[in-house]
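Entry 14: structure prediction run for GTPase HflX. Input pasted below.
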Amino acid sequence: MDEEKDYLVEEFDNEPDTWEKGEEEEKTAFLATLATRGEKESETEASLNELGKLAKTAGIAVLGKYTQKRENPESSTYFGKGFLEELSRKMHQNNADFLIVNDELTPVQARNIENDYGIKVLDRTEIILSIFHQHAHTKEAKLQVRLAELQYQLPRLRRQSENYDQEHGTVRSRGGSASRGMGEKQIEVDKRIIKDNIRKIKQAIAEISKNKETQRKQREKSKKICLVGYTNAGKSTLFNALTEAGVLVEDKLFATLDSTTRQLKLSTSFPVVISDTVGFISRLPHQLVASFTATLMEVEDADLLLHIVDLSDERYEYYIEQVQSVLKEIGADNIPQILVFNKIDLVDSIQLNLAKKRYPDAIFISALNKSHLEDLLQKVEEKLFQNRLYQMFLPYDKGSLASLLHEIGDIKKEEYQADGIFLEAIINQEDLHYFQDYLLT
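Run finished. Output tokens:
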């Protein structure tokens, strides 16, 4: 079984890069979105700006951004006819490579836009998949991204086949039944190949999940913390600050795809591990959520989540909602959380104080400057272990207990008196039974 799994991984490692053509030279694009009734102009603009960041991360230069106000998307072309005609004209004038739509298009919508207006179209999901593809480095991440790509491609084979013909200078007749029949047969062959590959990749990912489950059971005696948050919130920077792990940090969306786990040293002797995870984003493609089950298992299995928020981003409240939505989707919304506002070095005192009033239980830090990390660690210990400050008096013949307290507690005060030792120490609830008989009220 192991040999088959390794062969499968290598097989998909050596496949041609789906997105290779887009990486040879910088491509250009226009962005377009729909603004429905009730949507604020600021929300529409912020969403388009986020799409612009996604395009930049994918290596695509943005030439312009356009919005159409509509009650609902057009079923056949998503946008209205006049809007698409104007966009098509501008794209041809500027030799733009793509129109990027801020939503996931149906196969029919994408095909009709390309055929009727003579432009190439990418949707939001394709851009996110492209970024994940570029940033997947481990075999696990590559398999998970490949699975998501295939699941996205399967219902869109006809459109991709037509694009392939156009790029290679061939013309598929639309009138002749024989030609159409040949196309149908090839699509069926392609479908079988993709379905077979999906099955194989799912088997390989299941093996990875099985191995992770074994590792999880080996760590059952450890407390587990996971960093979660919107993409580019600073999770990896905080992870490095807490563990000195040296995880790659980039000012890009989805710089981290592979979960990384390290030990976290706290004042208690109880073993604690912390994991950095993939960032979330609004309208995260369901294909990716489904394929990244092995990675997201770290989140589902955590005892505590540190929800990292970029305080310097004016949409942080919206991002908090989006992260909570994804946590609910993967069944992790009931796990205890600490809200951690990061990048306080980038905001003024007024904005900081307003956030502190609005979120009185949150912790405010700068992971980059390593400021207020001690506040975070103290909060973590309180949440994980229900730590409290206790007073106790230990007779001198209980020296072994005094030594144990120094190992597993945080000593705040220690006085040697005539008949014993008076101590004030922070102890977690799980260790309290050792000292129960010597506690002072």
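Notes: The domain at 386-438 is CATH 3.30.70 (Alpha-Beta Plaits). Will compare against the previous run tomorrow.
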